[in-house]
Amino acid sequence: MRVVDLLRLVRDNKDISGDELKSFIAAVAKDEVPDYQTSAFLMAACIRGLSSELTVALTEAMRDSGKVIDLSHIPQIKVDKHSTGGVGDKISIPLAPLVAACDVPVPMISGRGLGHTGGTLDKLESIPGFNVNLDIPRFCQLVKEMNLCLIGQTSDLAPADKKLYAMRDVTSTVESIPLITASILSKKLAEGIDALVLDVKAGRGAFMKDEASARELAESLVRVGQGAGLKVRAVITRMDSPLGTTIGNALEIKESLAILRGEGPQDSTELTMQLGAEMLCLGGVANNLENARNKLGAVVESGAGLDKFRELIEAQQGDPRIVDNPELLPSANQTTEVLSDRNGFIHDIDSYALGVAAMKMGAGRATMEDTIDPGVGIEILAKPGETIDNNQPIARLHHNRAVHGIRSEVKAAFNIAQEQIDIAPLIIDRLGSA
Asked: pTM of the prediction?
């Protein structure tokens, strides 16, 4: 089929075959389709949508545009986790070693932060020496030997996704549910995993700003993932207020270590245990969530999860001493406390505003070319639902440059009211494979 004929059918919401779509994506990946025709496809798919069957075909075509990792030599069920991104979301870092310590292999390929959301790779790289750029043979070796490895996407994994993602950004087609679904799942399928747990976030600090949009994305990810042969569970979670008590790379590593010791904040600990339990169930080592949580609790109590993280750091050339001495992590030269200006109760904290403030301090990137300052960030000293007094510290800024304007932005992000409110549960819903 000529490209122009395929574009007309997508534009008019007419039937095309999965094979025809796969041929088109293969040609896109080989630079055999002009950018203007690729852009036309993205706009037509964004406006008209794609059926579940075509989204499966698009996902598989993007997966097959490059190398697909073969982990079939590892007999256990390989399980990964993906988050749609949020503020203070460091969950992958304590989660992966806890699950691996329960004998479920976790081959995890993660991304970098951009804008108000942080990236797992940037956080790991705040550990002195930690190498996220291992090649695929070494990645496979570590998953086999220690059930765990965390790296970044290589150039030969789902290259069609990189090309389409860059064009979506400049053609105003980022919000398309089928295109988001194919982008996320194509990279995960290329990892060679058998099962996937998805943390789909809803709220002002998330990509999906409301629960309905998050649910639509979660349903699409489950449906298409299962259509492509994965066992998939999606958990819809709130991202109105930041997760945990830290925003910033080394600060979030410290919080991750606290979670592994059983001393972490309630919300980030709860989400780690919830997602970990889902992974153990999909991985076949637990037959229900209660049993799975007991297993995770045991590896926290015994220190096996912390030992697995130490093993991971050493295997990926980082300094394992940070596990026992977090003060070896990078730190900022200055700290400044942000004070409340009234008595009352914390109703909520604007996670988007704090994410942007942390980015301005150097904890994140406005563009992919920006340099991360690993030691800077924001420590949250008061959480929603807590009582607050006038002049009480509500946040602590860790910084290496002036923060006069940022201090005001952080203060304004805390909504303090006179009446106490009930805090909505972190977990909104669960969808997908039993």
From this structure: 0.94
